[in-house]
Amino acid sequence: MKDLPIANVRNVVMLGHAASGKTSLAEALLFRSGMISRLGSVDAKNTVSDSSPEEQERQISIRTANLFLAYHDHHIFLADTPGYADFFGEVVASTSVADGALLVVDAVQGIEVGTQKTWELASQMALPRLVVINKLDKENARFLELLDALTDSFGKGFVPLTIPVGLGPSFTGVVSLLDNNPASADPDLYASCRTRLIEAVAETDENLLEKYFADQPLEPAELQAALRRATIQGTLVPVCACAATKVIGITELLDAIIASLPSPLDRGVYTPAEGDPLSPDPTAPAAAQVFKTVTDPFVGQITYFRVRQGTITAGTDVLNITRGHKERLGDLLLIQGKDQISVDRATPGDIVAVAKLKNTHVNDALGTAKVTFYPIPFPTPVMTLAVQPAKQGDEEKIAEGLHRIREEDPTIIVERHPETHELLVSGLGDVHLDVVFKRLKEKFKVDVLTSIPKVAYHETIRGKADVRYRHKKQTGGAGQFAEVAIRVYPNERDKGYEFIDKIVGGVISSNFIPSVDKGIRSRMAEGVIAGCPVVDIVVELYDGKEHPVDSKDIAFQIAGRMALAEAVEKANPILLEPIMNVEVQCPQQFMGDINGILNAKRGRIIGMDARGDLQIIKAEVPQAEMFKFCGELRSITGGRGSFSMRLSHYAELPSNLAQIVIENYRKSRAQEQG
Questions:
Q1: I want to staple 495 with a disulfide (CB 3.0 to 4.6 A). Which of 348, 349, 475, 491 is the partner?
Q2: Are 512 and 553 in contact (CB under 8 A)?
Q3: By three-state DSSP, how is residue 104 classified?
C-alpha cells in the first residue's frame, strides 16, 4: 500500500436494512476497483465480506467486514455492516469510527425499519451520507418514487447524482447528472432530475445561485465542488442508482464516494471524552481508537482500531493509554475477508488490525496522546435466556467462554440474577443468541441448555396483621428464647422495607433489636408465599420478651423470621410482576396485528407516533409475556419490525396467574424436600 496524502483517504460505513444488497455492493466495489479478479455472490457463498461458514450458511452478515480499496490514487476503507437487527452492535461500532456513510436502499422494498434505524444512527454520529438505490434491475424497481420517499421520511436535501437508464429487466446503465450529456437516459427523467440537482446545489452557494439566475451555464467541476461542500456539511445527500449484482453504476458510485464523501481532513478535529482535541495530523502524538476485537482460531485475538491522530508503526511498542501498559505491535493488517494485507504504518483515517495484543479491549486508546474516547453507545439487549450446562461440571467452561465472547461482542450481557439465581445471557434477538451458543460449542467445546428465564416476581401485602411469635428451644445446656410482637402493613409502592422500633420499657434489650430486623430481612429475601423477595412493607416491633440466660442473637433472628412469615400470610399477600416499557417500530400495514398481539399479552398501548414511513407503538407489557416477542415480531413483519424495551415498574399480578406461580413454587418445594 503506497503512501497517500490524508486528503486521499475515505473511511466509509455501509448501512441499510437486511437484504438491501450491501454485501453484493461491497463485492461489486472490490471487483470494479480491481481489488479482486472474480465477482462473488451471496447465493454462491463466495463473497469477500461473508467469509465465515456461519454467514455463508445463513446467507446473512453476522459481523462487519472491514474491506480496503485502492482506486484512482485514493484509499477507501469500507465497512460492510450486517443489516439484521440482531447484529446492530456491529453497525454501531463501525459507524462510530467512520467519516462518511453509504445508505443502501432496496429499489423494490423501499424504506424499511433498518433504513430508518441506520439513518438515525448516522445522524447521531453527524456523518455525511450518500444514498445508493440498489437492485434497480429487479421487477417493480422504483427510482423517482424512492427519491421522493427519502425526502418525505428524512427531510429535504436528497439530490439525484446518477439516474437509471431503464428499470427492472430493462435497466442497462446509469447517467451522471453533473455532465450536461443525457446520452441514453429518458429525456424527461434526465431534465427533471438535473434541474432538481442544479437548483439544490446552487442554493448552497451564492456564486452558483447568481449564475443560475443569470442563466449562465454551471460547469461540472464547480457543481461537484459545491455538492461536496454541501454533502460534508450535511445540507445535501447525493443519491446514486445501481444494480450491484450486475455491476451497473458501480464506477459512478466509486467516483461519487471519492468526489462527495469527506476525508479525515474534511472531518477535521475530533473531540475525545478527555484530553486535547485530535487533528488528522500524521506527525502529531498518536491516538488510535479500538472499536472491535475478534478471536481467530489460528492467531488468537485480533484487535481493530482506527487512527485518529499521528502514526502507528508496525513492530513497535505502543502504550495502551486507557490501561496504562505497553503492548508490542506485530504486523499491521488490512483485513480483506479471509485475506490479510500487511502494512508498515497507519495514519489518520486508516482502519487496521493487529494480532495478539495481551490486554487491549473495545474503547481503549492506543498511542502517546493522553486521551480517553467516548464509549461506543452499544444497543441494549432485548432478549434473555437462562443457561445451564448440558453436562455437569462444565460451569467454569461456560463462564470462561461467555467471558471471551462478551469481550468480542459488548451487546451480550451475562449475569447471575440476584433473585432467581439463574445464569442469564441477553442479546439483541434469537438469532444473535443462537450464534453465541454456537460459538460457545465450536470454540470452547461446551454445550448448554437454554430455557425461558424465571420472572423475578416480588411479594407484598395489601392488608395489615399483628403477630406474636415465641421461639423456644431447650436441648440441654444453654437454650434459646425470644418472643417478638410485630405489626405489618403496606408501604408505598417502591418505598421498600421500613423497620420501626417501638419497644418501650426495655422488654427487649437494645442489642437484640437489630437481630429481629436481621431475621425479618433474611425471610423477606427468601419470600413467603412463592419464594420471591418481599417488598414495600412496614414492620413495627412493639413488644416482646427475653430470658436472662437463653436469649441471644440467633434466637431473636429466628423469632423475627417466623413472625414475618406468619404476618405476611395473614396480611392478604399478593405478587407483583415486572412491567416493561416497550417501543415497537414497524411499517403501517402491520400495526393492527402488532396491537392485537400486545393486547393479547396483557399489554397497555400508551401511545402511537409516526417516524417517516414507520409507525411507532409504545406500550407497557408484563415481562413474562415478552420472552418470545422477538421471534413473533419477526414472523409478523417478515423481519421489517424492531423493538426495544426497558423495565418500567412493578404491578400486581392478576390473582389467577398468581395462584399458578404459587402452586408451582409449592410443588417444587415439595419435590426438593422429598
A1: 491
A2: yes
A3: strand
Instruction: Give the Cα separation of 266 and 575 in Å (integer).
Output: 59
Closest to 661 (Cα-Cα) out of 532, 566, 569:
532
Task: Write the pLDDT tens digit of every residue in 302-318.
Answer: 999 999 999 999 999 99
On whether the CB atoms of residues 534 and 466 are closer than 8 A, the answer is no
Closest CA to 90 of 58, 57, 59, 65: 65
The side-by-side arrangement of strands in the sheet containing 465-473 is 465-473, 480-490, 537-545, 498-501
461: β partners: 573
Nine cell digits for residue 427: 442479546
pLDDT tens for each residue of 175-234 = 999 987 787 889 999 999 999 999 999 999 999 999 999 999 899 999 999 999 999 999
Residues in the chain: 674
Contact 80, 95 (CB under 8 A): no
Cα–Cα distance, 614 to 123 (Å, whole number): 17
Domain ranges of the chain: 6-267, 287-323+330-367, 383-451, 463-571, 576-656
Q: In this structure, which amino acid lies at residue 34?
A: G
- Using DSSP's 3-state secondary structure scheme, residue 197 falls into helix
CB 289 within 8 A of CB 350: no
Tell me the CATH number of domain 576-656, given options 3.40.50.300, 2.60.120.200, 3.20.20.70, 3.30.70.240. Answer: 3.30.70.240
Section 359-387 average pLDDT? 95
Are the beta carbons of 245 and 44 closer than 8 angstroms? no
Q: What is the CATH number of domain 287-323+330-367?
A: 2.40.30.10
| Start-to-end CA span in the chain (Å) | 72
Residue whose C-alpha is closest to residue 12's, from 262, 282, 281: 262
Closest CA to 322 of 378, 279, 363: 363
Percent of the chain with pLDDT over 70: 99
Contact assessment for residue 435 and residue 441, using Cβ atoms and an 8 Å cutoff: no
**Alpha carbon distance 162, 241 (integer Å):** 6
Burial class (CB in 10 A: 0-12, 13-18, 19+), 126: exposed
Topology of the domain covering 6-267 = Rossmann fold (3.40.50)
For residue 120, give every residue at least 6 positions away whose Cβ sits within 8 Å of its Cβ, in sequence order, or none. Answer: none
CA 496 to chain centre: 32
With cut-offs at 50, 70 and 90, classify the pLDDT of residue 299.
confident
Beta carbons of 643 and 382 less than 8 angstroms apart: yes
Cell of 313: 508503526
Selection from 326, 579, 322, 316 nearest residue 455 by Cα: 579
Q: Which listed CATH number (3.10.250.10, 3.30.870.10, 3.30.230.10, 3.30.2310.20) goes with 463-571?
A: 3.30.230.10
> Which strand (E) or helix (H) includes residue 656?
helix 655-672
Residue 204 · residue 159 · CB < 8 Å? no
